[in-house]
Amino acid sequence: MIRYALICEHDHAFEGWFAGSDAFDAQSAAGAIDCPLCGARNVRKQVMSPAVTGAKKNFDGAAGRLAEIAGKVRAHIAETHVYVGDKFAEDARAMHDGEKDSAPIYGEVTPAEAKALKDDGVPAAPLPAPFVPTPAKKIN
Ligand SMILES: [Zn+2]
To answer: Could you identify which of 12, 94, 107, 110 might form a hypothetical disulfide with 37, taking C-beta atoms 3.0 to 4.6 angstroms apart as the criterion?
Structure first.
């Protein structure tokens, strides 16, 4: 048995059980199916859209998806990196020079500090604004 969601020519929705899709076609062609509400015999299967939830996401647009990705990156950084605030240049340099164990950190630098780090070959890259987490934990 197979259950179909049906609709009549007056948009009355109802359900019907059939032995199979052939049985529906045969009964429909013979006018043997009538609408329980109005008796109309022009009945067809409703078109179902089980992917409505997934499809809706696609309409949120690129901005929504980017915000979602940025949120994940932010969460990842916040989870795996330690916020060191204005000690970033100092710590990054110490790690680079081997005076401190390397660890994933993030924090702020002044433009002069950023330039000095770059000139000295200390690996540090600015985080794009959407990826900057709200500092949750601060050490030092
Ligand atoms: Zn009807």
So the answer is: 12
